[in-house]
Amino acid sequence: MAHPRRPALVHPEAADLTLYAVLHALADPTRLIIVRTLRNDLERACGTFPVSVAPSTLTHHFRVLREAGVIHQREEGNRRWTTLRYDELEARFPGVIDTVLRAAPA
Amino acid sequence: MAHPRRPALVHPEAADLTLYAVLHALADPTRLIIVRTLRNDLERACGTFPVSVAPSTLTHHFRVLREAGVIHQREEGNRRWTTLRYDELEARFPGVIDTVLRAAPA
DNA sequence: ACACTCGTACGACGATCATCGAAAGGAAAG
DNA sequence: CTTTCCTTTCGATGATCGTCGTACGAGTGT
Asked: CA–C1' distance A63–D20 (Å)?
């Protein structure tokens, strides 16, 4: 029994986010693609992001983003739906997401 | 003869900067203190930053910032003077520095 | 029941990280 | 010349990172 039950998804409170964790989460090409995609489309399933890494690597990046408070994930049947915690990030670190996305390569 | 001559300080061209390296450089409390200090005061000597790490650790952080293109350093006698490459950063990644500094804890 | 899909958990790998102490260089001051 | 000061290089440490293959669990659909 490797994983007896899917562990509950942990999302830090908005007040507990640190700028360092957010910046570190954004400082990676694959994760920045994820964030930019979510900034355009509201919600997406894990497998539908235009990235080119192995599935297990993608899971790792989602965890980094989730634990930094950048994304929110909810489960629905077989899929895991992901959204950007844009409003909370904007309230806590105003302008950071959009400024970084605007500076990021296309 | 450990270091026969002080190696010339390497500063990347503004066009060669990557957002990932800049974000990674900013994603550290000590380095963010350095950047904020330089945003206020134009130029400072290495030893005059309000940080609490060992001198050799400080040298490491300056190298990370320098190689990411965030700061510029010049030697003068015994001291090494450091400046923020603000105009170049602003031209390449508009708003990133100030937005991050505004979001950073005091 | 069966196969298929979606996404994860568990190692494992080499690479990089932040930190420090010790030693040393060069410059300045005595 | 000798001492002191500023900052570096080197080497080491333990931690974390990004990547992947493999195995698996839970849902979906036939």
From this structure: 17
Q: End-to-end CA distance of chain B: give it in Å, rounded.
A: 43
**pLDDT per residue as tens digits for the range B12-25:** 999 999 999 999 99
Average pLDDT, 10 consecutive residues per value, chain A (106 residues) = 60 97 98 98 95 97 98 95 98 98 95
Q: At a CB cut-off of 8 Å and minimum separation 6, what does A71 contact?
A: A34, A35, A38, A62, A65, A82, A83, A84, A85
Size of interface A-B (CB pairs under 8 A): 57
Residue B8 has pLDDT above 70, yes or no: yes
Which residue of chain B has the CA closest to A20?
B27
- Collect all residues with Cβ–Cβ distance below 8 Å to A21 and sequence separation of at least 6: A67, A68, A69, B27
| Total Cβ atoms within 10 A of residue A63 | 14
